[in-house]
Amino acid sequence: MNTALELEWYDFVCFGIVGLAFLGAIWVLWMHEGASQSKLGTLEENLLVGLQDSTGVVVNVVLRDRVIGQVRSTPQLWTSCWRGLHPLFLLITRFLSFVVMAVLLPLDVREYDASIFVYYTEWTFTLVMIYFALGTIISAHGCWQYINKPPLQNGEMAEFLRRDLEESTNSIAYREKETKSSIRLQSQYIQEEFNQRVGFWGYLMQITYQTSAGAIILTDIVFWCVIVPFLSISHFQLNMLMVSMHSLNAVFLLLDTALNNLPFPWFRLSYFVLWSCGYIIFQWVIHACGFTWWPYPFLELNTPWAPVWYLCLAVIHIPLYGMYSLIVKAKNTILPRFFPRAFLRTY
Questions:
Q1: Where do transmembrane segments lie in this chain (predicted)?
Q2: Sign of the alpha-carbon dihedral angle for 326, 332, 334, 335
Q3: Cβ atoms within 10 Å of 219's Cβ, excluding its own
Q4: What pLDDT does 75 receive?
Q5: What pLDDT score does 8 carry?
Q6: N or C: more exposed end of the chain, with fewer CB within 10 A?
Q7: What's the gap between Cα 329 and its chain centre?
Q8: What CA–CA distance (Å, rounded) separates 217 from 19?
Q9: pLDDT at 134
């Protein structure tokens, strides 16, 4: 079999860069997601809950060591950060976003055939579409719960813990017998029941959202700031469909960010890195199998400058993810000042 991938010494440097990025991302996720304690397919996360008993004594129940970003209760997956905004509005927004993207993707494939999936854009567009599909399903389930039984407010988790604690022991006995072992047992019980309520799909939805955030920044910046103004590709012709594919993904996700209640922890940059590593490995595989051209020139291996490009590509994931993180941070710091009665920050 002919191969379009001829290896030189500097190619192995590129392999090493991608390999280190991949292993580093796995290590970060192992440390923060707690893969060793995953149960029933769910990703365990850290949780710090302040519990105040009837006498005003605050007891901190710590699940593992650190506090990281995750939803504290199921309603955060399908309710808005805007007080009084009905969950149905977020459901409609996610559903319409999914429908538009589900129409555009087949149109793009019909226009350019299935080989269009050699582009990172198609991967990212599909990932964002999957997020909106998950968001639609979870929002629909949440709206059904909302209609049948209105959700508890921000103190839901604290109330849940308080009720559980009151059933097991009274507050006086708890204060007298509080020890590390009892806290650990209580934590395990809370963790199991909490995970049943949030579930695997809630974690998957968050991960897809946070990965998509970094990926759309990378996709759109490369397209609008590098490919369009500087690169001349023989089969490249800007049209309305291409403009939509490289803009609506960001527009829809930013709109969802403005409405949703989801956290945006820094450590999940690792999923963004893994996503990009997966795409690069895919490119290596198809070129080893005979694919002859590179969709992005900076991924080419047949140049001594390849390690520099790959190193820059690895490093740039940090500021790109940071850009979206700043958007979320601005949302949670600026909007409450302008709309103190309307904006509701729950994490």
A1: 12-30, 88-107, 127-147, 213-232, 238-259, 271-296, 308-327
A2: positive
A3: 24
A4: 80
A5: 81
A6: N
A7: 15
A8: 23
A9: 95
* Spatial distance between the Cα atoms of 330 and 4, rounded to a whole number of angstroms: 46
Q: Give the residues of the chain that fall short of pLDDT 70.
A: 1-5, 34-73, 149-198, 231-236, 345-347
Is residue 46 within 8 Å of residue 71, measured between CB atoms?
no
Q: What is the pLDDT of residue 21?
A: 96
Q: Is 116 left (phi over 0), alpha (psi -120 to 50) or beta?
A: alpha
pLDDT in tens, 59-96: 333 333 334 456 656 788 898 999 888 899 999 999 99
Token pair recorded at residue 111: 């226009």
What is the spatial distance between Cα 261 and Cα 279, in angstroms, rounded to a whole number?
29
Tell me the C-alpha distance between 306 and 15, whole Å. Answer: 10
Answer for the pair 208, 131: CB distance below 8 angstroms, yes or no: yes
Cross-strand pairs, 52: 58
What is the H or E stretch that residue 51 is in? Answer: strand 47-52
pLDDT of 103: 96
**Confidence (pLDDT) at 236:** 63
Q: What is the pTM of this model?
A: 0.77
Q: Which amino acid is at 273?
A: V
Give pLDDT, residue 233: 59
Our CA dihedral for 90, 92, 94, 95, rounded to 10 degrees, sits at: 160
Q: Which of 273, 119, 125, 129 is nearest to 211 (CA)?
A: 273
Residue 343, beta-bridge partner list: 82
- Look-up of token digits 């010494």: 9
Rg of the chain's alpha carbons, rounded to an integer? Answer: 23
| Residue range 102-132, pLDDT digits in tens | 999 999 999 888 889 999 999 999 999 999 9
pLDDT value at residue 247:
92
* C-alpha to C-alpha distance for 80 and 345, rounded to whole angstroms: 9
Short-list 248, 244, 215, 227, CA closest to 324? 215
Q: Distance (Å, rounded) from C-alpha 133 to C-alpha 188?
A: 32
Q: What share of the chain is helix, strand, coil (3-state, %, to 5)?
A: 70, 5, 25
Location of structure tokens 């609008």:
224
Separation CA 184–CA 335 (nearest Å):
38
